[in-house]
Structure formats: C-alpha cells, structure tokens
Amino acid sequence: MKSKSISERNGNGHSHVETLTENPSYGQTNPSFAQNFMKETSAYPELSETEVEDVEGVSILRPGEGDKEVFSKLETESAENETSFEETGFDMPGAETDLMDAFYASYPELITKMQTEAKEVIIGADNRVRIFNTTVYPWRAICSLRITAKDNSQWIGTGWLVAPRTVITAGHCVFMHDHGGWAKSIEVIPGLNDATKPFGSGVSANLRSVTGWTTSKNRDFDYGAIILPASYRPGDRTGYFGFGVKTDAYLMSSVLNLSGYPGDKRTFRNGDQQWFMALKPKSVSSRVIRYDIDTMGGQSGAPVWVKVGDVRTCVGIHTNGHLSGNSATRIVTPVFNNIQLWKNQGL
Amino acid sequence: MEKSGLVATKSGRVKLPALILLSLISAIFIIVFFQTNKKSKMQTTGSVKGILKNKQGMPVADAAVMIKEGSHEFNDMASVSNGQGEFFVSGIVIPGRYVLQIEHSSGTTVKEINVQSNDTLIVINL
C-alpha cells in the first residue's frame, strides 16, 4: 500500500513532546521500546479547530465541551483524576486453559494451529481471519453487543473490556439519535463464539458518552462506555485491554489490529463470530484514524490496538465504514481521560 | 488616471464605474455562495425504515442488515429485523446511495438503495 507523508505537526499544531517516565509496574517486555517511548499531549479539545459536519441538526458546542461526559442515568459517580496517558491492560493468567471448550480438549492439535493463524501480524489485503478460540486473551476481552434501542429496534455492535465491568464502544452504540437517544439495554457477551458464551453475558443500561456525540452528533466524538452491573464482572476472568495516546508518527508506523463481530459472519439465529484483520493505517488526523482493514456492520465499537511484545494498547475505537477508508475515533488525551474515568467506575 | 472613483484608460476615456463592477462581482459571489449553501443544507443525517419480505410476501425476522458500501461515510452497526420484518438504516447522510447486505436464513442478499428523504420506506423482497 502506498503510504502517505506524515505531518510533523499533530492535530492543531500546538503539540509538544515529552518523554514518558518508564513505570516498571507496566511489565514492558521490550526495554528499548519503553526507553524510547514518547508520548504526546496536545490541546485537542479545541472544537473550534476541529471539523464540524455540514449537516442539519448539528449544534456547535463551546470549545472544549465536546468531551464533556454524559450519562444514561442521572446519578453521578465520582472518580479519581488521572494524569497518565498510558493505561496498561491485564491478562488473567491461567484462565486460558480452564476455559477451553470441550471440543478443543478433544483436539488439542487444533489449539496450536488456531493460535498461530490468529497472530496479530500484517495479513493480506481484504483477508479477515476468524478467531476460532475466543477463550484466549486478547480475544476474550472483546465483546459482542446486542443493543435494544429506546424504540425497541435491535442492533449488533462490538465492545472491549478495560476493567472488570467497563466496556468501551462507539458512541452510536450507546446513544442513537434517531432511535430515542440512550439505548434501553445492551447485552454484553465477551468472547462470544457462535452460540457459545464462554464467559456468560450481562445486561446493562448504565451508559456513558460525551456531549460531542450526544448533543453535537460529531463523528470526532463518537465513543462511549457500558458499565456492567456489580454482579457481573467478566474482566476478572477475561483480562482487559490497555489504552493510550500515541503520536501521528507512532501510529503511521504501527500495525493496527482490529477484531470484532461483523454482521456478515453472523450465524443466523445462532450467535456471532469474531473476525480479525491487521494493517498499517492510511492516515491519521487529530481525532480520526483511517485504514483499509475490512469491517462490516456489527463491528462498531471494536478495539483498534497496537501490540508490542505482550503489551497491547488500544489507540482507537472503530466506528465508521467508507470506500475511502474505514475509520476509528482516535484516543487522544480527552478521550483517554474519559476512558480512564469510566474504567474507574467499573473496577 | 483616476477621478472620483471612475476608472479611466490612458487615453482618458472613462470605462464602467468601479463601484458598479464591484457590485456585479459581489452579486455573483453572493448568488453562488447561497446556492452552494442551500445545496449543502439540504443534506442531512437520519434513519430510514425498511421491511424484509420473503418470496411469499411474509416478513423476515432476525435478519442482520448492514451497509456494505455507501456514497457517504456510515456507522458500522447492523440492524436486526423484528417480527414484522422491520429494520433500520441509521446515521446515514440523506440523500445518498447505499448498498445493503442482508444476512438471513436463506443466505445473503445484496441490494442497492437510493435514499432521498427521511420518510423513505425500503421494501426488500428476499
């Protein structure tokens, strides 16, 4: 694929670069990466400097209001303010063996074969790979969503765990402007594999998004979260993804991994299948990452992550399709801060 | 040679007043601007409803309907048809042309739709 030139300025051009202090608790397996790792903090929330869609029904918020958190419920939950821009994931050791399907116990040779096929590497164009064993990390931390909108219309989407009870997804999976606003309920099914629900499922109407999406309907702010009930903590068993803010240059040189539950691979009335693909991005802008990774309806909310050694860091939330490139809402500092906030609400 | 806002040639013969010329250019600019603006304001985002029917004309439930291609960017969700065969195509730019892919019990159906307004009703016979 022909790569585009990379702008040295990030987003609005007011960025600065600083060295991230290595945190030994992150357990980085690649010291050279950790030592050279740079993070960028930019003045992203300036809505006046971002594009606003030229469509009816879009109101313009004051600068900086786009990432203001909004809830599906009236109660406010407190959370600590965090200053880090890299949040590590968590893989539950030992869970993999215990949760293998009985089928795999009978055919252990298939496990090695399937795990090899599902490695997060660059694969050929337009080739998605099915994740047959969704009981291993990171696939088990990816969730099929069955969404019931306020008007009772039914939808499918994808989400990913960042905490025992917090699922990150697209804003349009939790708040649907044309179907009553906040979803009536969402069933979250981690690692769904056809009809098999290896980690059960939980239903929630405790939803989060930001005003940039709920009020302005701005694609740049299309992200949200589902807080699962206290009685259902799948992340304790599945592990969960890390997430972080990365520079344009870092993203453009990285392979992006994307896995979710596309509707075209749906087993009729028998569940959904998880499919994966990875490619380098086509372009990055201040709020959006574009790529040629194949996606279909149902993958909204899927994680877009980079993998270095055993460290997986989500950098985007898949939201849109288009012939010119499918795209994700980019995790920039305000997005990071909100995900961090929501993560704390699901611990 | 310039006198009282009039533009003159070297020979001293006065041409069109600068003010009138400027007014004409401004008028053309304003007309073009408002035409363009009017065109873009006619575009909106919305949701349209559809109905899936089988060969016998009966509604098809539990089918997944998603956009495969579109003239504009679209949300990557899939709608699931209800007992009346109803589904929605949501968050799309209208007017627009979209190719729908429908996964149902009998297989896969691909249909192109041309959505002109929010009240468009799409009827798809599978």
What features would you describe in this structure?
The complex is a heterodimer of chains A (347) and B (126). By secondary structure, chain A is an alpha+beta fold. Chain A has helices at residues 31-36, 95-98, 102-106, 108-117, 171-174, 211-214, 235-238, 248-252, 333-345, and strands at 16-19, 38-41, 69-71, 86-87, 129-130, 142-148, 154-161, 166-169, 175-176, 181-182, 185-190, 202-204, 207-210, 224-227, 242-244, 256-260, 275-279, 281-284, 288-291, 303-308, 311-321, 326-330. The N and C termini of chain A lie far apart (41 Å). Residues 1-60, 74-84 and 94-124 of chain A have low confidence and may be disordered. With 126 residues, chain B is of the alpha+beta class. Chain B contains one helix and ten strands. Chain B has one helix spanning 18-41, and strands at residues 2-3, 6-7, 44-53, 64-70, 74-75, 78-80, 86-94, 96-104, 107-115, 121-125. In chain B, strands 6-4-8-9 form a four-stranded antiparallel sheet, with no helix packed on it. A three-stranded mixed sheet of chain B has the order 7-3-10, with no helix packed on it. A two-stranded antiparallel sheet of chain B has the order 1-2. Chain A binds chain B through residues 53-57, 147, 152-157, 170, 172-173, 176-179, 217, 219, 262-264, 266, 268-269, 295-300, 318-323, 326-327, and chain B through 40-41, 43-47, 62-70, 72-82, 86-88, 90-91, 93, 101, 103-105, 108. β21 of chain A pairs antiparallel with β5 of chain B.
Strand content of chain A: 25-35%
Shape of chain A: globular
- Largest beta-sheet details of chain B: 4 strands, antiparallel
* Spatial extent as radius of gyration of chain B: 27 Å
Low-pLDDT stretches of chain B? 1-9
How many beta-strand segments of chain B?
A: 10
> How far is it from the N-terminal to the C-terminal residue of chain B, by CA?
77 Å
Helix content of chain A: 10-25%
Q: What's the overall average pLDDT of chain B, rounded?
A: 82
Number of strands of chain A: 22
β-strand amount of chain B: over 45%
> What class do helices, strands and sheet pairing of chain A give?
alpha+beta
Mean pLDDT across residues of chain A: 75
What distance lies between the first and last C-alpha atoms of chain A, to the nearest angstrom?
41 Å
Major β-sheet annotation of chain A: 10 strands, mixed
Query: What is the helix tally of chain A?
Result: 9
